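Feature request, filed as a ticket because there's no other form

It would be nice if the structure record came with a short human-readable summary line next to the tokens. Right now we just get the raw output. Example of a typical job, pasted below so the devs can see what we mean:
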Amino acid sequence: MKNFSSSGTTRGRNHFVKALSQRRRHPLAAFALLLMALLVTGGIYAAASTANEAQAQTTTFTANDVEEGSKLFSANCASCHGMGATGSDAAPSLVGVGAASVDFQVGTGRMPLQMNGPQAQAKPVQFTEEQIRQMAAYVASLGAGPSIPSEEILDASEGDSSNGGELFRVNCAMCHNAAAAGGALTRGKFAPSIDGTSEKHIYEAMVTGPQNMPVFSDANISPEDKQDIIAFLKTIEEQGSPGGAELGSLGPVSEGLFIWVAGLGVVIAFTVWLTSRSS
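Raw output as currently delivered:
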């Protein structure tokens, strides 16, 4: 009787282990594990992004800002972007672009658009700072997006220009030139010169990706690294061109062209002088 009971217990334990093993090998187990890993990774990424964005956010807008911004938008922007900024055949939706996008586009005069072309060009600003803020508040109320950066993160004196120069050469120089002088792109588009651009608009351009520029979110380049890039740009702006005529800061192409034209001019002038002497 004792041996029978022990044998039954052993068979029951083996059956339980076998059943558990089969469940572990269930076809959906790998999928469930992968899904769980993705959820955990996404949660960590979202938390990190939120923490970074919080470092660069400015003060919130009031209900009056949103209301006044809505009126300004309806009068000046809705004809292209549609009522409610949902977009149209003439212009894209602005839902979710954030306050920073409005502050950059309107604050640099690129919007309202002057004429159709490969890309919007900077021109004199048509609105006051308060009006720009109100329109930014309205668009920000339509959906979450990059906010206007705080003054603290824009302080170039707190940035590391050496690190900023390295980051700029790796991420930006292929379009904007190593000296931030700008450059030509395809189909009539171009990367503008950054000389004279305010710290706020430089930061907003990085987080919103205007025109043909890619978006450099805080997960790609942290707010501190953006501050370092601004510090680098302001440093080279203050230094000017200690070597003399910068020739557009376009490097060997413009310098070679200058030497070729100037050298050819000297040769022609010398030839004319020799001809006049012989005659």
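Something like this underneath would help us a lot:
Residues 29-56 form the longest helix (28 residues).
Confidence is low (pLDDT under 50) at residues 51-55.
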